[in-house]
Predict the structure.
Amino acid sequence: GQNIDQPTEMTATEGAIVQINCTYQTSGFNGLFWYQQHAGEAPTFLSYNVLDGLEEKGRFSSFLSRSKGYSYLLLKELQMKDSASYLCAVLDSNYQLIWGAGTKLIIKP
Amino acid sequence: DAGVIQSPRHEVTEMGQEVTLRCKPISGHDYLFWYRQTMMRGLELLIYFNNNVPIDDSGMPEDRFSAKMPNASFSTLKIQPSEPRDSAVYFCASSFPGEAGVSYNEQFFGPGTRLTVL
């Protein structure tokens, strides 16, 4: 079967750095997405990785290792507005997006 | 562009009633997706369309659910009859294709319809 694992919940402090991990087992791989979803709102796109390595975009970076079936989202200089759920999703061999359950990130002052 | 538009934003209905959710994708996007999100099951893909044609409806939970896309700017998701377990947030998303005609570009989500079936 297809499976994506992420921690259910994480807590971090304002101004700090947090890393949200995602491991996946899917039938084929055509890229990995990270989305952010604030409570009561729709998911919004953060990043897309298809090659191994780190993609940096401002305070957010996303890393991928295809051989390990592993990705992480790194958030630096955390702000209170970063409190949200972060969804990992993998595009499988049929170009279908398989979604993880999401990681709820709580930022404390 | 106004983004993906969904209506209604909230729907409360009684068990057994018919529910119709509506979606207007972003102009120029060839792909349209219907999702359901609950605390227990997370985000689930129900069905998606490419150029108004349903491509994969394997996520549609049962025959009570149906979706149509009569033109490039409008889609509906219908539940008939509705049941309490259908209570969820239903999202519509759209995207345009990437290279080689496959949709690996980001999906743009609408604000969702929060459905409560009593």
About this structure: Chain B touches chain A through 16 residues (CB under 8 Å). DSSP finds no helices and eleven strands in chain B. The two ends of chain B are 36 Å apart (CA to CA).
